[in-house]
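Researcher: Go.
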Amino acid sequence: MRTWFWTLLLAVIAVTLAVVLRSHSGNVLLLVWPWRISMSLTLAVLLIVAAFVVLYVGLRLLAWLLAIPDRVRAWRGKRAQARDHELLERGWIGLLEGRYSHAEKDLTRLLDQTKVQTRRVLAALSAARAAHGLGEFDRRDRLLATAQEQAGAEPGLVEATATVSADMLLDQGHAERALAVLAPLADGGARHLHTMRLLLRAHTALRHDEQVFTLARGLLRRNALARGEGDHLIDVAGAARLRAGAANGAWRAVWKDLRAEERLLPEIALAGAAAFEAAGEAGDAAKVLEAAIAVKFNPTLVAAYARCDAEQVSRRLAKAETWLQQRPTDPDLLTALGMLCLNGQLWGQAERYLLRSLSRRNDAQTHALLGSLYDRLDRPADAVRHWRLATAASMALPVLAADAALPAADTGSDPYRLDAEGGYAVGLSDGDAEIGGDYPSLPPAVAASASDYVLDPDARVSKEQQARALAPEEAPLAGGTSDIDEYFDSAPIPAAAFDNPVPTYSTASSPAAPKPSAPAPATPAAVPVPTTKPPFKDDGSL
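Model: Structure:
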């Protein structure tokens, strides 16, 4: 529209000028010594216009020629900016997609080639994020140091570097380092939402209850924190503040600082009730618990409400019975009523409430309370039964089989015992022979086959071949380990068939088994060695 307007305006001016010049037929005389130039007015005007156009075009051309270096620098800057933007865009896309290796490569190239301060800081921080995703924490720390150095004293870049560093340190579990990084921002009065969230995470990990309480309150007030998460943090931190105040006697100031809706949170209500109970104000403790239970029924609060002195039983029992009208089948409430009746020595009502609770849920605490009740009522059998049920309900004990005597194992083929038929006591060393008495000497091939017994069949074959190579005349004896194999593969664990246990001896010739130490000289004792097989019955018992 603007172009059409200026075109029309120039056409009107041209037509007007042409009409005026045609109606005024004058001459223009130019005296330039030694020349005298005379021309018409129309020609003079046209020459003036042409001279202006030529001068204007010449000046513009000269300015364009003089601006060539600037234009070249601008073109190079735009080309470099386009390359930087391409690398930055590609790196960020890879970072968002989780391709941290490719992202770190592109962002590191950008860090090396760009000359702009902000882009260098962005590239260093983004590359540090990619290195953090790869678990390269040393490389991440170097990139963060580079970003901090490039940020200089620019407030925005300094804050960006601090927040990114603290976020990654918190992900790594270094809350103290993150808090040290965020300390300048907190001291400077920074109240950005992201900074406050990071401070909240750091103080929560370090269990700084005062700071957690203050930050959670502030974020909830600004709608920057989910209501459930904020209430949980305030609940836990407020209860910790109350318990710490109860230890030094300053809990009343903490309680007054709490808002009305904060006092109704479960943990805060429990801590406040405990503080009032410790101060001897049981009525106020009951009111705190009643208000919290009225907002949200919590089994922990109900159980705490049932723990009271005898003089508080009647009031609390009446209040709990009103809750029972609204929740007649709640097992936690029934157990709490039974506990209240126990505290008030109302045995019959306590039994009814506890049995009603057990009919709806098998609970260890309810069984234990019934056991205590029956113990008071001089019913030991019922008391013991419910105590056992309480143990089973809480620990999930296995079902034990009936006691039965296992048959004794046949140890006749045991290579580590003296054969009753006069065979060799395989596995006994020379020192053992001195302790136990006279033992027959053991042929080397048999001792080698017994001492080199292994569970791997292939290894056993190779050792048998070595035994044959060492003692060819004893080959039949060296290969006769089938009884040993059959014993270890099929024999059950030997039972206690004798009054005194028989020690197990290791083979002296085996390099893998250590030689048993000799018994203490102060109490020498001969090892009983049976010379005949013990009489076994048909059923396997002695």
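Model: Residues 418-443, 445-464, 469-542 have pLDDT under 50 and may be disordered.
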